[in-house]
Design goal:
The protein is of the alpha+beta class. It has helices spanning 48-60, 121-124, 131-144, 153-169, 183-186, 208-224, 245-255, 279-296, 301-322, 330-340, 345-358, 364-372, 374-393, and strands at 2-13, 20-27, 33-36, 39-41, 66-79, 85-97, 110-117, 177-181, 196-201, 228-232, 263-267. A hairpin with a 5-residue loop joins strand 2 (20-27) and strand 3 (33-36). Helix 9 crosses helix 10.
Length: 397
C-alpha cells in the first residue's frame, strides 16, 4: 500500500469576536469542484509544521500567519489514480491571520479564497472528515473568546525559531524529531502562565546533538523571558536529561500522543510509542511528587503553577486510561471527570482552574487558593482509582 504524508492548516482571523476561517474553491484536473483548506504533501526532510506553513503561503498567499495550535492527525485510505491502494495522513494545524488578503494559485486549480464564519464552515467544506478538525478549531477559538485571550505572537516566534534550529541540528539524524506538546500544542497557551513544552526522540544517548538541542532551549528561555522546557527520550522512552519515575512517566505519556495532540515540528515522528502504564501506580506517583514538591519548591506563583500542573496530569492520565485517543483539552477532561466521577474534588477543582486560565491566569490569590486544594483532590482520586480497578477485576463484570 502506498503511503502519503501531508500537512494542512485551518486559518482563522485574529478577531475573536467574529471569527472566520479560510476555505479555497478548487477545480481538480478531473473536473471535480471542491472546497478545501490549504494542505499538501510533505517534501523530503520536511516536518509537518513547515509543510503546513508552506502550503498556506503557496495556495493562499498568506505569509504572516500566527501558529496557534495543533488539531491532530487525520488518517484515511483511498485508491490512487492507477488503482493502487493508498493511505494518507494529514497533520492539521491552527493558524491565525491579521491580514485576510488571500490570493489563490490558478495553476493548481484554485479559483477563489473565501473567509467564512467558523461556525458554518463545515457546511461549505467538501470532505466530511474535515469537519472534525473545524470543530476542534472552533472549540479553541471559543475557549479564547471568554476574556478574550488573543493568540500569542510570542508563542508563534518561539515555535518557529525552535522548529528552524532543531531542523538544522537534526539534519543528519533520519530517525530523530522534536515535537511540541502541552498547552502550546492544544491551543490554550496563556502568556505569563503556561510553559512551552517540547520533547525530542531518536538521538543516541551520548550524542552531542543533545547538548545542542538543550542549549537551544535554554537560549530561547533566556532570550524571551519565558519557560521553555525540553525532554529528550532514549530508545526506551526514558528521560535522558532528568532521569526519574515522574519525568519518565510524563515523557512516555507525551510520546504516546504524537499525532493526537503532540505535533512534530522538526525531523520525523517516533517509530514506536511506549506501552501504557498502570493507572493506580501512576496516580500514587503523582501524589507523592506533589507532596514532596510542595515542601521543596519555593512558595508563590511557581509552586502553585506546579501543583496545578500535577493535578492536570493526574486527570489526563485518568482520561487516557478510559480513552487513549480522547481529547486532553482541560474543558473536555473536566467533562469526563464530571460524568465518571461527578462528586470528585478533582473535577470541581479543574473546572475552576480552567475558568482561571480563560480569564488570563492573573490572580495570584486565586492560583494559591486552587493549589491548596490539590493534595486532598489527589488523595481522593487514588481512592477512587483503586475502586475503579477493583471493579474492572471483579468476576461479575
Amino acid at each position: 500500500m502506498r503511503q502519503y504524508a501531508s500537512a494542512g492548516a485551518i486559518v482563522v482571523t485574529t478577531d475573536l469576536r467574529q471569527p472566520r476561517t479560510l476555505l479555497l474553491d478548487q477545480v481538480r484536473v478531473t473536473g471535480e469542484r471542491q472546497t478545501v483548506a490549504a494542505k499538501g504533501r510533505l517534501e523530503p526532510g520536511e516536518a509537518p509544521l513547515a509543510a503546513a506553513l508552506r502550503e498556506v503561503a503557496e495556495e493562499a498567499g498568506l505569509h504572516d500567519v500566527i501558529y496557534a495550535g495543533y488539531l491532530g492527525q487525520q488518517a484515511y485510505r483511498f485508491t490512487d489514480n492507477d488503482g493502487t491502494p493508498a493511505a494518507k495522513t494529514v497533520d492539521w494545524f491552527l493558524f491565525a491571520a491579521d491580514d485576510t488578503t488571500a490570493l489563490t494559485r490558478g495553476e493548481e486549480g484554485f479559483t477563489t479564497a473565501r473567509w467564512i464564519d467558523l461556525d458554518t464552515a463545515g457546511d461549505e467544506a467538501s470532505h466530511a472528515g474535515f469537519g472534525e478538525y473545524l470543530r476542534r478549531a472552533a472549540d479553541i477559538v471559543s475557549w479564547r473568546q471568554h476574556r478574550p485571550l488573543p493568540f500569542s505572537t510570542l508563542l508563534d516566534r518561539v515555535i518557529r525559531d525552535v522548529a528552524d534550529q532543531a531542523t538544522a541540528i537534526l539534519a543528519e539524524q533520519p530517525d530523530a524529531g522534536v515535537g511540541v506538546c502541552g498547552s502550546a500544542a492544544r491551543g490554550d497557551y496563556v502568556e505569563g502562565w503556561s510553559d512551552i513544552d517540547l520533547i525530542g526522540w531518536g538521538l543516541p544517548e551520548a550524542s552531542p546533538l543533545i547538548a545542542g538541542l538543550s542549549g537551544m532551549v535554554e537560549e530561547f528561555s533566556a532570550c524571551h523571558g519565558i519557560r521553555v522546557s525540553l525532554r529528550l527520550a532514549d530508545e526506551h522512552g526514558h528521560d535522558v536529561r532528568s532521569p526519574g519515575p515522574v519525568p519518565d512517566m510524563k515523557l512516555q505519556a507525551a510520546l504516546r500522543r504524537v499525532g493526537t495532540d503532540v505535533a512534530v515540528i522538526a525531523g520525523v515522528a517516533p517509530a514506536t510509542a511506549p506501552a501504557t502504564v498502570e493507572l493506580l501506580s501512576s496516580l500514587e506517583l503523582l501524589h507523592e511528587h506533589a507532596a514532596h514538591g510542595s515542601t521543596r519548591w519555593s512558595s508563590g506563583r511557581d509552586r502553585d503553577r506546579r501543583l496545578l500542573s500535577i493535578a492536570c496530569s493526574t486527570a489526563r492520565i485518568i482520561v487516557t486510561n478510559e480513552n487513549p485517543d480522547g481529547s486532553l483539552r482541560l474543558p473536555d477532561v473536566v467533562r469526563v471527570l464530571e460524568c465518571g466521577w461527578p462528586s470528585s474534588q478533582l473535577g470541581a477543582l479543574l473546572g475552576e482552574y480552567d475558568t482561571f486560565r480563560r480569564a488570563g491566569a492573573e490572580s495570584a490569590d486565586t492560583a494559591a487558593h486552587l493549589a491548596r486544594r490539590v493534595p486532598d483532590a489527589l488523595t481522593e482520586m487514588i481512592e477512587l482509582g483503586g475502586s475503579v480497578i477493583a471493579a474492572h477485576k471483579s468476576p461479575s463484570r
